[in-house]
């Protein structure tokens, strides 16, 4: 058994296709298939369900994959640690992020850049379940999202809790002058406005929908999008009122918009920056986490 076989196995898990797994492994498909068959022969186990195409892993294969992910993660972490010892902290950090979490991620990355200017980032938008799965399988190095605190404790993640500054309405005052007269906006008032909201699968949207249902009114969602930029632009031209966690957007993006706090109950989940527990987190993730939490609001 060697590390390349385990890398091929984890690549096959991610790609779910022999050809694509071979491509990302920089080998031919016959070579990848042969090396994985050699691994099965050495272990004395059938790891992969084979038909004409890849058909998933056997129960034994799933168990071996758990170890393979750990070993490959440690191996890649060792390589990164050696590189950081020789050249300083550098490389690409993989972040999974739930949309509309209560921190402006680019501002946080810019603050970390002052300490680690050679660090690059690959950012993927994910749901809560996707993010937890990606953290557990080491397909991302860290995550920012809304979590159940009990889940974080059970999974032993390193956690930096994010402040909950509340929720605000963003609107063009020329199109919604009546909202300017209020210091705070009630849910009943909000439900009477045309709204620009994220798609219903997102946690923040589900939280907002639950709060609005308590008013007994059904709001009109005039724009619904997975793109925060589309929602923001819709608010800027006066199509509707955008609802966002305070602190999620950079002030420069909200030019020409007015902002008012919304009277809402706190979220049931906690916003947090998380990485794997000490010893399992990659060196890049640990460096980023230690520096990033210095710049998070108290």
Automatic annotation (TrEMBL):
Gene3D superfamilies for this protein: 3.40.190.290, Winged helix-like DNA-binding domain superfamily/Winged helix DNA-binding domain
Pfam families reported in the protein's UniProt record: HTH_1, LysR_substrate
Keyword Transcription: yes
Record family assignment: Belongs to the LysR transcriptional regulatory family.
Keyword Nucleotidyltransferase: no
Keywords noted in UniProt: DNA-binding, Transcription, Transcription regulation
Cross-referenced InterPro entries: HTH-type_LysR_regulators (IPR050950), LysR_HTH_N (IPR000847), LysR_subst-bd (IPR005119), WH-like_DNA-bd_sf (IPR036388), WH_DNA-bd_sf (IPR036390)
All residue ranges annotated as the HTH lysR-type domain in the record: 1-58
Name of the protein: LysR family transcriptional regulator
Organism: Pantoea leporis
SUPFAM superfamilies reported in the protein's UniProt record: Periplasmic binding protein-like II, Winged helix' DNA-binding domain
């Amino acid at each position: 058994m060697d590390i390349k076989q385990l890398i091929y196995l984890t690549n096959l898990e991610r790609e779910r296709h022999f050809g694509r797994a071979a491509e990302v492994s920089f080998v031919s498909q016959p070579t990848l298939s042969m090396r994985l068959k050699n691994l099965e022969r050495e272990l004395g186990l059938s790891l992969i369900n084979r038909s004409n195409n890849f058909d998933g892993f056997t129960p034994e294969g799933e168990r071996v994959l758990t170890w393979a992910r750990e070993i490959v993660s440690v191996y890649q972490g060792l390589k990164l640690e050696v590189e950081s010892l020789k050249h300083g902290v550098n490389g690409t950090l993989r972040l999974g992020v739930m949309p509309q979490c209560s921190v402006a991620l680019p501002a946080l990355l810019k603050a970390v850049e002052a300490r680690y200017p050679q660090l690059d980032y690959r950012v993927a938008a994910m749901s809560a379940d996707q993010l937890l799965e990606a953290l557990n399988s080491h397909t991302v190095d860290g995550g920012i999202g809304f979590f159940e605190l009990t889940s974080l404790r059970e999974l032993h993640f390193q956690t930096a809790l994010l402040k909950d500054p509340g929720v605000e309405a963003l609107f063009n005052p020329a199109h919604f002058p009546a909202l300017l007269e209020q210091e705070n906006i009630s849910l009943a008032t909000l439900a009477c406005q045309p709204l620009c909201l994220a798609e219903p699968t997102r946690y923040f949207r589900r939280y907002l929908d639950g709060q609005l249902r308590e008013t007994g009114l059904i709001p009109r969602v005039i724009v619904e999008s997975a793109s925060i930029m589309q929602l923001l632009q819709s608010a800027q031209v006066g199509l509707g009122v955008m609802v966002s966690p305070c602190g999620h957007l950079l002030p420069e993006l909200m030019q020409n918009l007015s902002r008012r706090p919304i009277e809402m109950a706190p979220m049931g989940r906690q916003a947090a920056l998380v990485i794997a527990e000490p010893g399992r987190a990659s060196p890049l993730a640990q460096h980023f986490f230690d520096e990033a939490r210095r710049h998070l609001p108290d």
